[in-house]
Amino acid sequence: MRLSWRDLGRPRADKAHGKTVEIAGFPVAILPPATADHFLMMAEPGCCAGCVPNNPLAVIEVVADRPLKLGNGTLRLSGILHASSDADAWRYQLHAAELLPGVSRRAVLAASSLFCLPATALAQQVDGMAADIHSHAGNLTRATYGGSLLDVASPMRSGGLSVMCLAIVADSPVISSSSGRIRPNREPKPGELYEFSKRSFAKLHELARSQSMPIVRTAADLRAARASQPSVIVTSEGADWLEGRIERLDEAYQRWQLRQLQLTHYRPNELGDIQTEPSVPGGLTDFGAEVIRRCNALGIVVDVAHGPFELVKRAVATTAKPLVLSHTALRNRPSPWTRLITSDHARAIASTRGVIGIWPVAEVANVSAYADNIARMVDVVGVDHVGIGTDQLGLLGPSALPSYADLPQLAAALSSRFKPPEISKLLGGNYRRVFEICIA
Ligand SMILES: [Zn+2]
Ligand SMILES: [Zn+2]
Predict the structure, then answer these.
(1) Which one of 35, 229, 259, 265 is at 20 to 30 Å from 168 when CA atoms are compared?
(2) Residues with beta carbon < 5 A to ion ligand 2?
């Protein structure tokens, strides 16, 4: 059975456990030893151990019974595939590996859909202007409860990410996960989520300050943001802390430099419904519409992620500025309580000149499949309306992009489908355009 890198993490590869497979890839090493009986293989050439992605789905560990001649190009191997469930191991191993002779040009192209570029060229594809539309990186959510903040500025610099929308989670005290689904577990006490969100915003500012990351308040601040000095857009996932009081929006704009607001999260709130619970207020409420108009006037980006199509339709009719839908993917027959969206839902966002951030969710836990999902959304709404929303440290399952340092791998995966100016748009240019319009 012939495997492609896109199969990794999918049922096709897992079903091949214990069977003989063929796969082509590159040994990890800039000057590989002439022969080896134990080495790592990736879809694209990497120059050193530092190029190996954290993602256990992006690498195959090769074990041979006798040393194999590595050469300088693509290796085509056969062997017995092992899919490991050990969290510390590489997910896939190729045992009793043997070299297969001759690699056709077609086989190379199929195997390395990830364009073969040296690591420095990959980083240039990202061009230091990339933007993540939705993130909880730096361990922000847990740090609000006393956990430690983690370094995020360094992986942003090395991966080429200039700015991230760093989100507090407004309804965090009253939601919990069971059976893979996050749901509200009680009603908040009056003032509870307001006080909690103030502590979360303070922690977000502490994170930015301690890692010397400027806070983006204006379009000029965003234009100045570069991967060499990555910046933060203060974001709230859920507007539950408003508790129906519009004046708190102005307060958050001033006091916390809030510049992106997601209306609802995992709790139907005063602004509207969510995708993952039965409809309560019926889409977007009058208060939700008032919040959108006030965001437009103040210069706050409105994010309708987690909102059902009914909420989005009224948001589209209400807003005078582009909308963002920061983290999702396309699914034309969505299952109940899905966070994914249909083509019509996606087109509604694009109709505002907005942008849709694509998620690196579990079922696409390698960059090649992540790039496929981005391309699928581009097919529906066009290359000007798609971006990336990693939801880093907010996903229930594994991520195809667990570290910003892996961003060049995503750029490489996109480069087999898009031209460099299009990749720049997808990785951040589209979001930058939307932000500039919203903030004006
Ligand atoms: Zn979310
Ligand atoms: Zn999130």
Answers:
(1) 229
(2) 237, 391, 394
CATH of the domain at 27: 2.40.50
Residue type, 406: D
- 253-297 pLDDT, tens digit per residue, is 999 999 999 999 999 999 999 999 999 878 999 999 999 999 999
Cα(163) to centroid(ligand 1), Å: 18
* Residue 86 structure tokens: 């050990």
- Same domain (yes/no): 174, 66: no
Asked whether 301 and 439 are in contact (CB, 8 A), the reply is: yes
Please state, in angstroms and rounded to a whole number, the distance separating the CA atoms of residues 180 and 106: 41
Query: Of 58, 81, 112, which closes a domain?
Result: 112
| Ligand with smallest separation from the Cα of 391 | 2
Tell me the pTM.
Answer: 0.75
Domain range for 68 is 5-112
How many Å lie between the centroid of ligand 1 and the Cα of residue 44? 31
Ligand 1 center from residue 326 Cα (angstroms) = 8
Domain final residue pick, 62, 92, 112: 112
Domains held by the chain: number:
2
Q: What confidence tens digit (pLDDT) does each residue in 310-344 have?
A: 999 999 999 999 999 999 999 988 788 889 999 99
